[in-house]
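Progress note, sequence design subtask.
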């Protein structure tokens, strides 16, 4: 039997290609086509080949809404990320999407840019389309978002953070401990005058937790913290330059600086070189994120590497287990705490 035998052409004005058209072209039942999209594991490989050929030949697109929102819920997972263009989140998004795709699920993505109102709007829109699951970043949400997450009758996962007291599944790390880790690293190097530079994006509350970890660690060592706050919402490289120029005017100047992210650190590193500093001899620099450019800077950037790819993979696995797509022993693991790695390079 030929694949997609005598496939009908869609006539102009005749409306969209239907599931029944695909079934006729593939010479299978409509139920088999429906299972191909919703339960592919229940369709034999030969039938899958024939149905796929018919779908491609006809350009068929499933009408999930017409089929009822329950069918839409079967294959779509929503994710809200602070910044889609940010390199720090790219590996998480890709790993999450790749893991979903292997099991027939698709990712819908929205950006909040660290704005609680934008996140709330995205969550409301996603839930309106009845996704199979929802993934949000961190635990800092508006009251309305909290209510929507609490009442959602689907798996909800919070990533890039870890707070076991919260109801959603947790896949992430403790930002406070990252601040502690960075500060202790510099203290162990013999530095005492250590500054911290915040993110220029006001809504990055996780970065403030890293700042708090730095402050607590310095105070435990009997030293006074010094935090620089860049101008609100200026570009990250510009914020790093601004921070370096301000800090080198301080007397005594810092021996080391911890930055909220690698973009800030890179801007500061370049500004320090323009000012004639010999880095790290005159000043040590530590970033966060291990962006792709970190090892290519001169000097290369010492930074903390978050488990970005692992967070995406684990979050997707927990979603698939919660949906019953993947088997797991006992209950789905709700708490998944990961760690950040200090990547030692030349800047500190």
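Output:
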């Amino acid at each position: 039997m030929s694949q997609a035998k005598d496939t009908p052409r869609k006539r102009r004005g005749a409306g969209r290609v239907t599931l029944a058209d695909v079934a006729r072209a593939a010479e299978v039942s409509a139920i088999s086509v429906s299972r191909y999209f919703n339960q592919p594991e229940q369709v034999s490989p030969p039938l899958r080949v024939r149905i796929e050929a018919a779908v491609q030949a006809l350009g068929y697109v499933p009408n999930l809404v017409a089929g009822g929102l329950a069918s839409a819920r079967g294959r779509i997972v929503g994710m809200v990320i602070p910044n889609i263009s940010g390199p720090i989140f790219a590996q998480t998004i890709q790993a999450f999407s790749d893991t979903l795709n292997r099991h027939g699920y698709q990712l819908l993505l929205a950006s909040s840019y660290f704005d609680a109102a934008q996140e709330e709007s995205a969550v409301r829109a996603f839930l309106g389309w009845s996704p199979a699951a929802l993934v949000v970043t961190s635990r800092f949400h508006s009251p309305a978002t909290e209510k929507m997450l609490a009442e959602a009758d689907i798996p909800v996962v919070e990533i890039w953070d870890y707070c076991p007291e919260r109801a959603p599944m947790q896949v992430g790390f403790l930002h406070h401990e990252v601040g502690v880790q960075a500060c202790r690293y510099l203290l162990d190097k013999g530095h005492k005058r250590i500054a911290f530079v915040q993110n220029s994006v006001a809504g990055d509350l996780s970065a403030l937790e890293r700042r708090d970890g730095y402050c607590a660690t310095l105070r435990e060592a009997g030293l006074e913290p010094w935090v620089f706050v860049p101008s609100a919402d200026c570009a990250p490289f510009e914020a790093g330059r601004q921070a370096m120029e301000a800090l080198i005017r301080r007397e005594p100047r810092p021996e080391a600086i911890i930055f909220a992210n690698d973009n800030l650190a890179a801007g500061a590193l370049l500004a320090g070189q323009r000012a004639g500093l010999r880095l790290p001899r005159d000043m040590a620099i530590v970033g966060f994120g291990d962006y792709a450019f970190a090892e290519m800077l001169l000097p290369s950037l010492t930074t903390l590497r978050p488990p970005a790819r692992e967070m995406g993979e684990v979050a997707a696995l927990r979603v698939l287990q919660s949906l019953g797509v993947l088997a797991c022993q006992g209950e789905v693991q709700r708490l998944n705490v990961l760690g950040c790695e200090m990547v030692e390079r030349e800047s500190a």
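The CA atoms of residues 87 and 291 lie 6 Å apart. Work on this subtask will continue into the next period as scheduled.
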